[in-house]
Design brief:
By secondary structure, this protein is an alpha/beta fold. Among the domains are: about 10-155, Rossmann fold, CATH 3.40.50.720; about 325-395, Rna Polymerase Sigma Factor, Chain: A (Orthogonal Bundle). It has helices at about 20-35, 50-60, 75-80, 90-100, 115-125, 135-150, 160-170, 195, 200-205, 215-220, 225-235, 275-285, 295-300, 315-325, 330-345, 350-365, 375-395; strands spanning about 10-15, 40-45, 65, 85-90, 105, 125-130, 155, 175-185, 245-250, 255-260, 265-270. It has a 7-stranded parallel beta sheet with strand order 4-3-2-1-5-6-7, sandwiched between helices. Strands 9-8-10-11 form a 4-stranded mixed beta sheet, covered by helices on one side. Magnesium ion binds near residues 159, 160 and 229.
Length: about 400
C-alpha cells in the first residue's frame, strides 16, 4: 500500500466487497493513504471486471480476490500474475470473501446482489461498514435480527446515515423527535414535471454534486434513492416513519440532522466526498485522516433547505408509502426499481415509467395477497426474485 506516515496501534484487517465500484475505489483511496500499519487487506471482491479487481488486490496487498462471474476466473488469475493472492470465482467465492477473518467488512456491492454476501459477513459477527442500502431495504427485519443475534455491528457508510449516526453519538432513539436525511435534489430539482418525465439517461446521470455508480445516480435523480434511504434509516436506527423526514439541500454539505426532544438539533457536515464517511467507519471510534478537501463554510457562504416536492418526484412518495405499509412492500419496491432502472438506462422506457412501474409492482403484490413481511433473508430474496421476474415480464 502507498502510505504517508506510520501507525503504532493494532492493525485492522479489512475486506472490501464491491472493491471495483465507486465506493470500492473511494475505500481503496482511504486505505492506500492511511498510515502504514493501520490497515491490512484480507479480501477484495467484485462483479465481472477481473482486470480492475486484480489491480486493486495488488495495490492493497490483499490475500484473496473473488470475482462473481465464474467465466472471469482465468482472466483474474492471469491479471494477478505472480502476486501472492489467492483467486476465486463465482457467487460462492464472494460469500467466502465476506466470511474470511477480518475486523471490518466494507459492504459495497451494488443492488440486491449484495444481500447474501453482506448477510454472511453479519452472520460471522463482523463489524460491517454498510454501503449497500439494499440489504436493509430488501430484508430489513431479518437482516437486523440476524446481525444482532450474531454480534455483528453495522456502521453506516451512506452519507446521510453516517451523519445521523455521528449526530446521535450513541444516544437512545427515545430522545429523538425527528431524523432528517438531506437530498441534493439531483439534476432535476428545478425542472417541471413534464421535463422530468421525458428526461434522457445522460440527463439523469449528470448529478450536480456526487459521483456515484449509474444505478444510484438514476435513483438520486428521481429521489427514489432518498426513499430507499428512509427505509434504510428506519431499520438501521429503529425509528418509525413518522420520525423520519427529508430536506432538499442543494449544496450537499449537511448530510443528516437529528432533532432531539429538548429542541436541540445536531447536524453532520462535510464536503460531498464518500471517503470521509468510509474513513469514519474504517477507523471507528478513532478518526482516520483522508485526502477529502476540508470544509470551508465561509467559501460556501449559505446553506439552503426546502421541502421535497412529492408531485414532481413520485418515487419518493412511493417509498414513503412502502415504509409505512411495511411487510414485503420495501422488498418489492426495491426489486422492481432495480429492473426498471436497468431498462431506463438501456433506453427501453421513459423516466416517468420508473415510478409508474414500481407502483404497479407494489399494487400487484397487494392484490395477490403477497404483502406480508418476509420472515427470513431467504424469504426476502424469494420475494425479490419473483418481483424481478414479474417486472421483467411487464416490460417485455
Ligand atoms: P458501483 O456500481 O460503482 O459498484 C458496484 C460494485 O459491486 C462493483 O465493484 C461491482 O463489480 C460489484 N458487484 C456487482 N455485482 C456483484 C456481484 N454479483 N458480486 C460481487 N460484486 C458485485 O456502485 P456504487 O456506487 O459503488 O454503490 C455500491 C453500493 O453502495 C450501492 O448499494 C449503493 O446504493 C451504495 N452507496 C453508494 C454511494 C456512492 O457514493 N457511490 C453512496 C451511498 C451508498
Ligand atoms: Mg446517500
Amino acid at each position: 500500500m502507498v502510505t504517508s506516515s506510520t501507525y503504532d496501534g493494532p492493525t485492522r484487517r479489512v475486506t472490501v466487497l464491491g472493491a471495483t465500484g465507486s465506493i470500492g475505489r473511494s475505500t481503496e483511496d482511504v486505505l492506500a493513504h492511511a498510515p502504514s500499519g493501520q490497515f491490512a487487506v484480507e479480501a477484495v471482491a467484485g462483479g465481472r471486471d477481473a482486470a480492475a479487481l486484480a489491480r486493486v488486490a495488488i495495490h492493497l496487498g490483499a490475500r484473496f480476490a473473488a470475482v462473481a462471474d465464474p467465466s472471469a476466473y482465468r482472466a483474474l488469475k492471469d491479471a494477478l500474475g505472480s502476486a501472492p493472492i489467492e483467486a476465486a470465482a463465482g457467487p460462492e467465492a464472494i460469500v467466502e470473501a465476506a466470511k474470511r477473518p477480518a475486523d471490518i467488512v466494507v459492504a459495497a456491492i451494488a443492488g440486491a446482489a449484495g444481500v447474501e454476501p453482506t448477510h454472511a459477513a453479519a452472520m460471522a459477527g463482523r463489524v460491517v461498514a454498510l454501503a449497500n442500502k439494499e440489504c436493509l431495504v430488501c430484508a430489513g427485519e431479518p437482516f437486523m435480527r440476524d446481525a444482532a443475534a450474531h454480534g455483528a455491528r453495522l456502521l453506516p457508510v451512506d452519507s446521510e446515515h453516517n451523519a445521523i449516526f455521528q449526530a446521535l453519538g450513541g444516544r437512545d432513539v427515545a430522545s429523538i423527535a425527528k431524523m432528517y436525511l438531506t437530498a441534493s435534489g439531483g439534476p432535476f430539482r428545478t425542472w417541471t414535471r413534464e421535463a422530468i418525465n421525458a428526461a434522457m439517461p445522460e440527463q439523469a446521470l449528470a448529478h450536480p454534486n456526487w459521483s456515484m455508480g449509474a444505478k444510484i445516480t438514476v435513483d438520486s435523480a428521481g429521489l427514489m434513492n432518498k426513499g430507499l434511504e428512509l427505509i434504510e434509516a428506519s431499520y438501521l436506527f429503529g425509528v418509525e416513519a413518522d420520525r423520519l423526514d427529508v430536506l432538499v439541500h442543494p449544496q450537499s454539505i449537511v448530510h443528516g440532522l437529528v432533532s432531539f426532544c429538548d429542541g436541540s438539533m445536531i447536524a453532520g457536515l462535510s464536503n460531498p466526498d464518500m471517503r470521509t464517511h468510509i474513513a469514519h467507519c474504517l477507523g471507528f471510534p478513532d478518526r482516520v485522516a483522508t485526502r477529502a478537501t476540508p470544509l470551508d463554510l465561509a467559501a460556501i457562504g449559505s446553506l439552503t433547505f426546502e421541502r421535497p416536492d412529492l408531485q414532481r418526484f413520485p418515487a419518493l412518495k412511493l417509498a414513503m408509502d412502502a415504509l409505512r405499509q411495511g411487510g414485503s412492500l420495501p422488498t418489492v419496491l426495491n426489486a422492481a426499481n432495480e429492473i426498471v432502472v436497468e431498462a431506463y438506462l438501456a433506453r427501453r422506457i421513459a423516466f416517468a415509467d420508473i415510478a409508474r412501474l414500481v407502483q404497479a409492482a407494489c399494487e400487484d403484490a397487494i392484490r395477490r395477497g403477497e404483502a406480508g413481511a418476509p420472515a427470513s433473508i431467504a424469504e426476502a430474496l424469494a420475494v425479490d426474485h419473483i418481483t424481478r421476474e414479474r417486472t421483467r415480464a411487464s416490460l417485455a
